[in-house]
Design brief:
- The chain has 140 residues and is mainly α.
- The chain has a domain at 59-84.
- 45% of the residues lie in helices and 0% in strands.
- The chain is built from 6 helices and no strands.
- It is rod-shaped and about 160 Å long.
């Protein structure tokens, strides 16, 4: 609140007849020298505001800044969103998309399916072995 508004408010509250000092006791401020001296008195160098500050700057709380910049975990909302949709893509189409996205590097290729080896059976039967024994060793 400015001084002039405060003075006017006090004048309204004062009893009638006690408002101002007699005209002889009032200071003359009509001369330019008196106005300059009053300005110098009014503006003392030690009372100057710091000019280096930004006008209208508000000091922010460090805790509020931390909470504002803290990483937010969106996992639960993303899972809810993903599970909400019931549309399931065709398996052939998903395979095509995956094949297109694969590069030519070995790390991008899917692991090769190894064919299972069947246990090899013998070509000869028991009867063939007996026949061989008879012929080779001469046993009946």
């Amino acid at each position: 609140m400015s001084a002039s508004l405060l003075r006017r408010g006090l004048e309204l509250l004062e009893a009638p007849g006690q408002g101002r000092a007699p005209p002889g006791l009032q200071r003359e401020r009509d001369s330019p020298r008196a106005a300059g001296a009053a300005r110098r008195r009014k503006k003392a160098p030690e009372l100057d505001k710091n000019k280096a500050t930004i006008k209208g700057r508000v000091v922010k709380s460090a805790i509020e800044e931390y909470h504002k910049r803290k990483a937010v975990n969106h996992l639960s909302t993303n899972l809810r969103y993903m599970l909400k949709g019931r549309c399931v893509a065709n398996k052939a189409i998903t395979e095509q998309v995956l094949a297109q996205n694969r590069g030519r590097k070995s790390k991008d290729l899917p692991p090769k399916k190894v064919a299972k080896k069947k246990p090899e059976g013998t070509v000869f039967t028991e009867e063939d072995f007996r026949k061989f024994e008879r012929e080779y060793f001469g046993r009946p």
